[in-house]
Amino acid sequence: MAALHVARQAIADAGWGADELRDAALVVGTSRGNAAGWLGPWPGRRPFRLMAASNTIHSEPASAITIEFGITGPNHVLASGCSAGLDAVGIAMMLVQSGAAPRALAVAVDLPLVPLLLDNYAASGLLADALNLNPYHSGSAGFIPAEGAAAMAIEHRDGAFSRLLHYGCNADACDPVGIPADGGRTPQLLEKAIQLHGQPTAVCPHATGTAVQAIADPAYLNRCFPGARPSLHLLKPFIGHTIGASGLLESVILSRFLRDGQLPPNRAGLMALCGFHLPDHALDCNGPVYKLSHGMGGHNALLVLTPP
């Protein structure tokens, strides 16, 4: 199972043993749990008769992880659509900051590549008609679906690790499938983060490639950054849109680059927003990086990361 695999990697990277895992918190983000296991069963999705009931509920990945690793602290499952992965990091971080748990494991997983789910996205007009994703091109009108999983171990520790500074979320209460054309309440998230942590060196926007996102992103970015512009780093042209896993997967990629004091490059040839730079090579980074996610129904999330 993908969630178990990435959880094991994050735990090993953190060096957590049985004692550390026992009182850790677990937060899982997913848009649909393990639904792919029963909508389109194949061996990689645990289609065992024993799992027939649990595969139909969102909590199955969290249950599997706690059982596999002996995690008996608080555990939660978040299903806030495309924001779920970023929300998982944020809530896990808050559990550690509040003292509710000494450490936390954030995991996100989404496996949408089954015919029924893809047909639903296609019927909504959300899928791209080509594999060359260019999110801010005038002809961009859909996203490229992908499967993915990622995990992040979070605790108070010194060392050469990227830092999580801030998490915020809000809602637009506007549209069941997209962000408002003016960016909705995303500017409030950015303005609060700027007040607390200063101007970002870089922003990693949601940048799915849908027509509404291509309008909304420049609207809120131009409003929040009228002067000095941070560089933009678009990751979905490389990895596709992993739905509920995307926010955490992209945060893990950012974190790995930030460990080395760098920012990831953009794919060459992408159309840039007016006034914003999309570098196609890695840049040095010594300041905060803002990661944004937007879920269907108007759920917005923001995470602020920095190098060690």
Short description:
Helices cover 32% and strands 19% of the residues. With 308 residues, it is α/β, with parallel strands linked by helices.
Written description of the protein model:
By secondary structure, the chain is α/β, with parallel strands linked by helices. The protein folds into 2 domains: 2-129 and 147-155, Thiolase/Chalcone synthase (Peroxisomal Thiolase, Chain A, domain 1); 163-306, Thiolase/Chalcone synthase (Peroxisomal Thiolase, Chain A, domain 1), CATH 3.40.47. It contains 10 helices and 11 strands. It has helices at residues 2-14, 18-22, 36-39, 60-69, 84-98, 115-123, 186-197, 211-224, 236-239, 246-259; strands at 25-29, 75-78, 103-110, 148-155, 163-171, 202-204, 231-232, 262-263, 283-284, 289-295, 299-306. The strands form 3 sheets. It has a 5-stranded mixed sheet, sandwiched between helices. α1 (2-14) packs across α4, α5 (84-98) packs across α10 (246-259) and α7 (186-197) packs parallel to α8 (211-224). The model has no long low-confidence stretch (mean pLDDT 92).
